[in-house]
Amino acid sequence: MNDQSTSRRAGGRAARRAARAAPLAENLRPVRAGLSGGTYKPLSDIDIANIHEAALTALEEIGLCEAPQSGIDYMVAAGAILGDDGRIRFPRALVEDMLAKAAKTITLHGRDPKHDLDLRDDRVHYGTAGAAVHVVDVEGRNYRDSTLQDLFDAARIVDTLDNLHFLQRPLVARDITDNYELDLNTIYACCSGTTKHVGTSFVEPDFVPGCVDMLHMIAGDEATWRARPFVSNSNCFVVPPMKFATESCEVMERCIHAGMPVLLLSAGQAGATAPAPIAGAIVQAVAECLAGVVYVNSIKPGHPAIFGTWPFVSDLRSGAMSGGSGEQALLTAGCAQMHKFYGLPGGAAAGIADAKLPDMQAGWEQMCSNVMAGLSGLNMVYEAAGMHASLLGYCMESLILGDDLLGQALRCVRGIEVTTDTLSLETMRATCMGGPGHYLGSDQTLSVMQTEYIYPSLADRTSPKEWAEVGKPDLIKAATARKDAILGSVSAAVLDPVTDQAIRERFNIHLSL
Amino acid sequence: MNDQSTSRRAGGRAARRAARAAPLAENLRPVRAGLSGGTYKPLSDIDIANIHEAALTALEEIGLCEAPQSGIDYMVAAGAILGDDGRIRFPRALVEDMLAKAAKTITLHGRDPKHDLDLRDDRVHYGTAGAAVHVVDVEGRNYRDSTLQDLFDAARIVDTLDNLHFLQRPLVARDITDNYELDLNTIYACCSGTTKHVGTSFVEPDFVPGCVDMLHMIAGDEATWRARPFVSNSNCFVVPPMKFATESCEVMERCIHAGMPVLLLSAGQAGATAPAPIAGAIVQAVAECLAGVVYVNSIKPGHPAIFGTWPFVSDLRSGAMSGGSGEQALLTAGCAQMHKFYGLPGGAAAGIADAKLPDMQAGWEQMCSNVMAGLSGLNMVYEAAGMHASLLGYCMESLILGDDLLGQALRCVRGIEVTTDTLSLETMRATCMGGPGHYLGSDQTLSVMQTEYIYPSLADRTSPKEWAEVGKPDLIKAATARKDAILGSVSAAVLDPVTDQAIRERFNIHLSL
């Protein structure tokens, strides 16, 4: 009886303890996909208006050249003006009309609906992207050519990481030499590795139909695909400055017809293919993406298109790219504000390290741009984890550690909740006046432990003494062990055997599962 | 003649190249001490008002206990109310009166005036601080006891680093066992290592007069010291929650009388000695520092006092401190906003790593809070470099790499300049329409190369190919080499020999130079 009474008395706290040991409901987790940023605003309202005005002037007076004939036809029919110099110019009223028609909210679907991304307002999502041509061997301190297996591995790792919300293809399968087979196998490897939303990037327009056929097979049929397209295409539709990328535009047209969301990606490099001042690089990226908005909406009003201002930064000493710089972080955050100004879902690049290895430099570079992108409310933070050597090398250990890094960035995005409860006056009063004089065991402390605080998975918080006692663990070795554990298990995302077999019969799939 | 004509034609660019090779004037450097932040605002205006209101209520209803009798006398004479429970309570009108009297701008002097810090508005300064008891031996992966020589070394390193703007004592000289000699030697080692502003923290009130005598000797005489006090005292004047630290208050009174600026340091730990919710920890820190403002200004209205809300964060799983967390970054940035609300110069902690070594975790932890503190416009960012194991270990390599990290953070603080020039419309026009189609050699690019872009000193931006060619340099080894070079040269800050001799005759100085 005494036992029971003791247990009953302890019941409240024991029950709370048990509740805390159980996984939290998604809406109670301290961080999750789609938290709202927007507390960081590098640009004033006047700055934004001036950038907008300069971009409109650039579109009206400079315009863009080298659109494919099909694109010229679409845009001229909508009201753009083709000059004798071959440049298409865009009257302000046309840009404003098309902004009114453009999709303001976009859902990027996961193959599993629990991974759907709702792009609107200041909602922040982190994911991979890029076209690295190397994989970093951290133990051998070596850069080797990236392969299809690496892509599949990256997809599988992303599938297990809570704070990576989508997988855009981060590296190129250089062992696939046929470009059509590269496009097919890229999608296959990504979709077999994760049920999160996948981004790809087609090499040629003619490759789109076959790949879309494969997507129909993965979805079940075309209608199911069109209802929930789980792959988007990253279109480098411009070659900055102010030139359409003819072939990529043709790819984009095919994607639009196939019901695939597109990323309007303008990847100028400040000081090389974009103006060197940060403001100028933003102006050009905004102008180019506005041209993209006109293009897309003159084909299919409201088609889901992400405003992809991705200006990069040059190290002006060498002309080489520096994705890890503070200037990059500012560019990306400034672009996010422009997306909000237009009310369009937007994406840009952050999280790139210039460092060759996952060292201290990589840590500060990746956090700088990632946290600033998140705080600025960027909807899609691309290249957020694993990317080294200014986009040339992909590192699986860094990707895994990136989950901790992005969890912390997301905690910062979530921000500070100020409520009567969190202001804590009553707790302070009870603690200080006749109370224990500390907050360690207070109900309030216990209640926020899991819902307001996030705990890293691999990052080490031990004291020096504890750290020595557990053998001074090495961060990178811990990440390698985690990688081996993930890759040693079976992918949870593989296609059902019948579909897989059908795909393999029709297409040349290079990946053995 | 032809030669001369060629040289004359090339003259403009050659002259610009030569100008770029010369060191930039201070006002042209891309980053410097005192850049203005304030673009990041985690708290809304309503949040700020609610925190202020809660802090006033806490002061009025809860108050603080354990003030020394001298402090009680000062504060009660000013209008505070001593309760039967021994707690001093502060009517709102008193707090508001004292806020009106408090110093709104403070200059923290360097021994060399070029290092003076002008604390006002959103001006940001980064520096060291703390009381680490270990030094990190990176090669041996070991934590050893910190010594006076380490303190001197840290000071000398800080003296050479552009992006460290002050030296508050970051570690404790554990080899000095007599506490009076510890206080004397701490100041001596700091001032012999750097001419930047020095922060110290006296152990006992009775040690202040002797140390101040030494400061008079370093300055030349008392009047010179009082005109430009180059050492401030960090006063942990409260033991949170809501208790004065009796002895530290007595130290503070002595410092005020000696003309020394004070840091009103409230170092609660959310979830342990402060409420666990971030908002509540800010409320308590603000309330405690407001009590400090009343205290200081009831002794000497307008005495320079830094509003030192330094709430830390607990890892609520263990109760141990986690200075590297996202929650810490939010706490610090939120506090910076409260400083602005009061119009008072303020300081808080950022840049702390939980990581034991200068690894990737350290990099992301240090950048997260440092860049957020800077963007929030924190006047004094304490503990910004070198600090590991949640304040227990100091690492010289990390301090040196911190200069690159903080340079990048400062570049972000500087932000995006939007002007007719930087919008770059004319450059775009010239480049795209009949121009070269890129910006690599444009005058604009060359002109912003040094003034708008910052280049890291040790962080590596080579391509994988170049990196392999130069032997795959290791970041930490490069930092160790830099450390050895700095410490292998003579300190530029040593006292003049006559003063040094006089100090050594009067005080027991343990440091051999």
How far is it from the N-terminal to the C-terminal residue of chain A, by CA? 58 Å
The portion of residues assigned to helices of chain A is 40-55%
Gyration radius of chain A (Cα, Å) is 24 Å
Number of strands of chain A: 19
Instruction: Specify which chain pair forms the largest interface.
Output: A-B, 126 and 126 residues
Describe the structure.
The structure is a homodimer of 513-residue chains. With 513 residues, chain A is of the alpha/beta class. Chain A folds into 2 domains: 45-98, no CATH class; 103-414, TIM Barrel (Alpha-Beta Barrel), CATH 3.20.20. The first copy, chain A, is built from 19 helices and 19 strands. Chain A has helices at residues 2-21, 45-62, 69-78, 92-101, 148-160, 179-193, 208-219, 222-227, 246-257, 278-299, 326-342, 360-375, 396-414, 420-423, 425-432, 443-448, 464-469, 475-487, 497-506; strands spanning 35-36, 81-82, 88-89, 106-108, 117-119, 123-128, 134-137, 142-145, 166-168, 197-200, 231-235, 262-266, 269-270, 305-309, 312-313, 347-349, 380-382, 387-388, 393-394. In chain A, strands 1, 6, 9, 10, 11, 12, 14, 16 and 17 form a 9-stranded mixed beta sheet that branches. In chain A, strands 8-7-19-18 form a 4-stranded mixed beta sheet. Chain A has a two-stranded antiparallel ribbon with strand order 2-3. In chain A, helix 6 (179-193) links the parallel strand 9 (166-168) and strand 10. In chain A, helix 4 packs across helix 10 (278-299), helix 10 (278-299) crosses helix 11 and helix 11 (326-342) packs parallel to helix 12 (360-375). Chain A is globular.
